[in-house]
Amino acid sequence: MAASIKPNPIMRTLESKIIGRALLGINAEVAAFGVSLEFHTDFDLFREVVSEIPDKGSITALFDPRQSNINSNNGFWIKGVDQYGEIVHVQAMRVDDLGNQTIARGRSQSSKPNHGGCQL
Hints:
disordered N terminus, 120 residues, two-stranded antiparallel sheet, single chain, flat, disordered C terminus
């Protein structure tokens, strides 16, 4: 039986601070080009926004809350909007503590079960 891996709250706090500082720096850089960044954690909204962008395609299962366990605890997404209100950028990020697992095993465990094509 495999041992369960407990999240390390100190590392999670440190990761959040590093990511937060990086995002503040990026926000200042793109503002100089007339782009405003919005940060979100609602991945149903992410799916909706991406679906409305011409030629963008669909999102991968890793960022679709109907297919994987993605939420405010392990992901966020960014929308860049120009001075005319047009979306010029979307990007999502996900952080999963896989411990000593492989990426393939971690992905399979983060997926939601699919029973006959119906998500539960």
